[in-house]
Every structure is written in structure tokens, then in C-alpha cells.
Amino acid sequence: MNEIKWELNEWTFREAGQQEWQPAVVPGCVHSDLYRNGQIPDPYYGTNEHDLQWIDKRDWEYETTFTVPGDLLRQDNVSLVFDGLDTYADVELNGRRILSADNMFRTWNVQVKTHLTEGENRLRIVLRSPINEDLPKLERLGYGLPAANDQSELGGLGDKRVSVFARKAPYHYGWDWGPRFVTSGIWRAVRLEGWTGVRITDLFIRQDEVSASQAKLTALLTIESDRDFEGRLRLSAEGFEVQHTEAIRLGDNTVRLEFALDDPKLWWSRGLGDAHLYTFKAELLEGESVSASKSARTGLRSVKLKREKDGAGASFYIELNGVPVFAKGANHIPNDNFETDVTRERYRYEIVSAAEANMNMLRVWGGGIYEEDAFYELCDEYGIMVWQDFMFACSMYPGDEDFLESVRHEAEDNVRRLRNHPSIVLWCGNNEIDSAWAHYIPDGGWGWKKDYTPEQQNVIWADYEAIFHRLLPNAISKLAPGAEYWPSSPLVSLSNDENQHAHPGTSEGDIHYWGVWHNSEPFENYNKYIGRFMSEYGFQSFPEHKSVLQYAPEDALQLDSKIMLAHQKNGRGNFLIKEYMDKYLPEPKDFVSFLYMSQVLQAEAMKSAIEAHRRSMPYCMGTLYWQMNDSWPVASWSGIDYYGRWKALHYYARRSFRDLSVSIDGTNGEDLNFHILNDGLSAQSVSLRLRLVGFGGSVHSEQVLNLEASANSAAKVYSVTAAELLGEEVPERTVLVAELEQGGRILDQRTHYFVSAREIELSAPNIVVSRTDDGEGRSTFTLETDALAKQVWLSAEAEGVFTDNYFDLVPGEPVTVEFQARREDGTLSHGSAGAVEVKSMADFIKL
Ligand code: BMA
Residue 647 and residue 634: Cα distance in Å, rounded? Predict the structure, then answer.
């Protein structure tokens, strides 16, 4: 078998036309290279972002010289493969133009056998400024297209928003949580591939029908051959093997092999079973010798998006292996503005954090990138389902032939690359475009249409339909038949009439509910606006003090300092946080306290939403908050900050997403309703212990309810009025503790207060911490208090998380937590915490 791959990763770069070459890192981007070479300051520090906008107006040049290893050069076929070029790239090999690339999301493959020499070869790539490249396209169109998050002013372009013309990550141009860094670079691997005779370039395991008793599959292979011959194809996996004789022809061959696996081990999302993965190996044999081979890893499962009319409207949920799955998770954005700095370890840390928080789904949101293979591989392994957007968000796009052709290639490249991943359960055309434009509602949407004549509106909408109603679904049905496609998120239905548009309150499709936050509606409305699938809703907070100090000096620690404002990209963000804080929480005593309080506020908001959605199961079958992570250090809706530190939200989410949990609905202030949420596939006998405790620790009353929680369900199990429960006790100084128990083990716990957090009468608690550091570097902490302590926050010197955090500590009820160190490989496991500080809300307010 003769197939050799050889990566080209020794590069230099310079501004095009300038003298001096400097070392570059490939894959990488020009901003990272400039920073590494000391040419620019840290782009994420202070207000540096504002001074670095010149970079995207220049052309950049990357170069490598190399001698091709003899055995590679001797192959009959040699190609140069680019997994990703960002974005307008002219490629020259030994002085000859071999490629002009124009889409960051495509892969490029050029035959170069005849261009290579035995001695030194020179590969040069000029990356033309994406700004200068696209300004003329805007001129030619004659009117601008909506691009809600393109921060063109910051980029020095006034209102000229050019992002929509480039097939390049939308968030590079800025977002309401992200900086504007319009990168250029060789952002994915470059390599030479040589082969002689025959090779298998692609192996797709198409899942035609999968059940617990049998998986009917088709292996689809692409085979390149430089001659005709008769071969034997052998396909194997885990003690299974099939063989078939195939006539291979000169050129490209598509070979299909249908087969069945009995009693397959299925792939399940986290919480429902093992995420079992099979590695299929295809080998092409001539006689006994293997001429070519290729492996593909996948998980066997059946996936359906169930949209069926019912009494209330129409369902919207993922059915996995016949089981309706309640989706729990968050929206994922790229982990960095300089995406190529994200290591596999950072991806692992994100996915481990998702699994640790009891999530089973992440949405790869359409303003970022089609993620790296590592991301999907980890989702496959950890049982995290992926809702995959195509990379279009909050904008209208041009529809000229070149653009459409580019999008078609992009879609096909990515569907082909990703289609074996069992984790991808849904492909979605775009983020929020259908609802923002609202073609059939004259005054609907985000008010975009009023800037255009009726003729222009029709053109813009026709261009939209060409991409999202035809081109993208065609790519799916051609390359991943059977995979589910949803044109836009949010959306009501696939029809083209006015009923299609999602708004809070619709009883079909998915919903982005932003009444809380963007519209200043109260948290209580999370109980009111519940759709069939809540694919977005969110609330901002600040990173913790330690994180803020990584991008701002001490003297900038005020909300309205230039630096803090530069790291708050949502114009009304700080105002909204303050407004809601005034309503729901006591006043923080200083800036550092404000940071903490903003996290508590966000966590409380998201808890209300998540639990309201779960309680509404099976009407509602999914809850994905906005947003999982950050791409740089910033105030944002994220639950994990840029440095990987879990905010209060992530700990709250972990509790609210527990597969078996208790939830208290006390929104109307009078009735308290207790719900048991069971996402597992078996019924559970549990008991619910309700204890009324004074802030000083005296237990006023206690009752235990023995219950049966049926499988995969949510049920109200008990109601009582607050007055009845409280009796004579003082509402300002009494807490209700609800514990869900099984076999003497506490599975879940919630606290409920009878007045708002502003009205409760906190006193300064004396929290005693007993710490054990065992010989194996494990740090465990038992916390006890003499007075109620709210949102107890442990912070460690070492990087890592605690098994619980931001919890309420009730006198007489000690809590034990363990520190989980963040390992270099991205996993979390027991480790030494270093010095640990314990605080609670009382430390951050004037008592
Ligand atoms: C949603 C997202 C993002 C945005 C977020 C917060 O609309 O799709 O575009 O960052 O809200 O405004």
C-alpha cells in the first residue's frame, strides 16, 4: 500500500511587500503570529482591540521552503491539500499560481506532481485583506445588507458592513460578546499527499435503519485508482466482517456495500446509556495483500426530529433510538477569536464541563465555525448530542452565482467531513435570520425590511430561500440522507406562510426567548413563555475578579472605565444587569462584590428558565441556554469564562440539569408546587423530604413524601400554600429545604425562600471549613455554619472546580465538597486545591 501524508508546518510570514520575514505558526493566523513575534501587544488586554484594526486592511504573505521526501516524490500522484485557508488566498508553488481560494470553510486539493522538484520547493500564499476584497462587492450591490453584529464602526468602516460577502466566520467581525478581529491565515493543516495505484479517500457508514436488534448499514467508499482491476473489499468492526468482490476502474469509483449488524451496541446520549463507538475498517485487497485501507469511527443510533401535530400545536424533539430525549445544554460559540490557539485539551475541557454539568446537547451556533474534528470526536465519546448550524447568523446574504456556488462547496465539504459523527442529530440552516427578516409579516422581525424597496425585499428573500430552503437541504440529502434539517432557528414550521415565524408563545417549532434580558421582562416570564424547544434564552454576568484582572489593571475596576466597557459588547448590558440586580438582589457593596453578584443573578435567572422548561416536559422537550463559553475575556451570557473558570451559572446548571431532580415552582408567591423530574429510562422510588428551617438552624417542621417517579417524565407531586407551610414562622428568616432521597442518599436539594432575596434578613455567618488533604493529593472540604449562608462560593488557588459551589449552607446541615483539578489533558479529577477561600453573599453586601 502506497499512501504518504506529509505536513508542511515550518513557515515564515510578513506583511505583503515588506522586507522582513518572521517565524509563523501554521495552522494559525496573522494576529497570533504578530503577537508571538512581539509586533503587537496582547489583543485581549485592555483596549488593545481598538488599536489593532489596521491588521485586517493589509495583505499578508506566508512562505515555506521544503524538500520533498524521496518516497513521497516518487508516488505517481501527489497533491497539496489545504484543510482551511482564511480566506482570500493566492497560492503559488515554485512561482506558479496553483490556487485562488475564497472560502474559509472549504477544503482545497490541488494536483502538484508536475510542479514539484527534487531539490528545494517554495510555497507562497498571499492572503488578501478581506476588507479590501469585499468593499467593492458592497459598491456593486448598491445597497447594504443587514448584518446586526458586524461592528463596522469599530473597524473604521463606518456603516459599511462587509462581513456578509465573505464566507468567513461571522464572529470575526465582532458580536455582542466578541471583539472584532478579522483574521487572515492558514487556519487548518497543509500537507502533501502522495499515492500510487489505488487509495480510499472516503468511508461513510450510512445508517439506513438502526434498532436494538439490527443495524442496516451501507458503507459508501470513494476509491481513486490509476488502473482497472478486480479487488476484494473487506469491511470489519468488532468481531464482524464482510467481504465483496469489486471491479475497480481507472479514476474515481463510488463503491457501496450494504450489510447488517445484529444486536448492535447502540450510541446513547449521556444519561441514557453508553455512547458506544464502532471503528469500521475498509480494506481493498488484491490477492492477500492490502492495496488500500481507511477507517471510520461512528456510533449506531436512529435519530429523528419529531414534529407531529398534537392537541397543543406540534411537537419538536429528538427521538434517539426510539426514545424521546429531553435536550439539556447550551449554545456553543468558538472557544477563541484566534481559533487556531484552541488545543484538543481545551476542547476536552469544554466537553468534560458539559458532561459534568449533566448536559446532553450543545448547539454549534451559526455565527462561528464548523468546529474542529476534535470537538465532534469528544461529543461522540461523551454522549453529547450536537445541534449543528450552518455558518450563517443574524444577516442577509448575497445570492449571486459565485456566492451560491461557494456555499454549495462549503456545505458539501463540511457535511462530508462530519457525517459519520453520531453526535450530530440535527443540521440547521442559520441562526435567527428567518425570524429577523420575517418576510411575510410587513412590520415583523427586527425592522430590517423597511430599508428596502419591495423589489429589493423580494430579491433578498429569494436569495435567502435559494440557500436555506434549497441549497443546504440538498447538500444534506445528497451526502447524509436521512439526517434531519431545520432551515433556521428559531422557526415555527417549514411552510412558507406567515405562520412560520416564531415568537414567544408559539406552540410549534423552536423558540429563542429574549424577553428576559433584551426586553427587560421579569424572570417570572420564563414560566410564561415556554415553547416546544427552547433553543436560546440567556442572561449576562461578569467573569470573576481573578479573571477580570487578567485583562484589566486594578485602576480600571469600575463598570464604566474604558477598559471594562471595551469588554462589554452589548450596549445595554451593564444597564440591564444593574436594573435586574436592583429588582432581585441586595446591593453589592463594591465593584468586586458586583462581579460576584452578577454571577448569582445570572445563575438564578437561568435556573428559573431551565427548571420551568423541564417542568413543562413533554410539552417542552429541550432547553439550551445562551451561552456555554466565551471567545475572549468579556462580560457575557456565558456559564464558563474565557479562562475556563466555571461561573455560578455552570454550577447551577449542573444541579438543574440533574437527570433525577426536584424542582420548586413558587412563582405566584402563594402556591408552592413540587415537581420530580426524571430523565432516566426507568421508574424510580424516591422520597421527598421537606424541612422548614430558621436562619439560625432550628428545624420548625419536617415531612417526608414517598413517591414513584415514572421514567422519562416530569410530574407535579405535591402542592401547598406558602402560608400553610410557614405557619407562625417569620418569612424573612425561614428557608424551606427540599431534599430528594433514595436509599438514604441525597440525590438533589433545593432551597426556597418566602420573600425575595432583597427582603430576607441575612446575618454574617461564621462558616467553619474542615479540610482534608489525603496522601494522594485529594482536597475535600466540609463546611458548616451557624447562620444561613447564601450562595457560598469556594475559590481555589489551583485551577479547577468543586463538586458543588454557589450553594446555600443551612445551619445544622454540613456540606462536603471535593476539589477537581483541571488537568493538562483537559479532564477534571481530584487534585490539590492550594489555598482556598470561602465567601458567601453576606461578604458582598452591607449588612
Ligand atoms: C442570540 C444569539 C446571538 C447573540 C445572543 C445575545 O440572538 O443568536 O446572536 O449573541 O442572542 O444577544
Answer: 13
* Mean pLDDT of successive 10-residue stretches along the chain, which has 847 residues: 90 94 98 98 98 98 97 96 98 98 98 97 98 98 97 98 98 98 98 97 98 98 96 94 95 96 98 98 95 97 96 95 98 98 97 98 98 98 99 98 98 98 98 94 92 98 97 98 96 60 74 95 95 97 98 97 98 98 98 98 98 98 98 98 98 98 85 97 98 98 97 97 94 97 96 95 97 90 98 98 98 97 97 96 96
**What's the CATH code, domain 659-761?**
2.60.40.10
Q: What is the domain partition of the chain in residue ranges?
A: 3-191, 197-298, 327-545+618-656, 659-761, 762-847
Is the CB–ligand 1 distance for residue 394 below 6 Å? yes
Looking at ligand 1, which residue's alpha carbon is closest to its atom 7? 432
Residue partners of 32: CB distance under 8 A and separation at least 6: 25, 185, 338, 340, 341
Q: Is residue 177 in contact with ligand 1, taking CB distance under 6 Å?
A: yes
The structure's pTM equals 0.97
Domains 197-298 and 327-545+618-656 belong to one CATH topology: no
The sheet carrying 485-486 orders its strands as 485-486, 424-428, 385-389, 361-364, 327-332, 622-625, 534-536, 511-512
Of 395, 488, 516, 536, best ligand 1 pocket probe by most atoms within 8 Å of the beta carbon:
536
* C-alpha span between 608 and 627 (Å, rounded): 16
Distance, in Å, from the CA atom of 630 to the CA atom of 607, rounded to the nearest integer, reads 20
- Sign of the four-CA dihedral 542, 543, 545, 547: negative
* Amino acid symbol at 835: A
User: How far, CA to CA in Å, does 734 sit from each of 529, 584, 722?
Assistant: 30, 18, 11
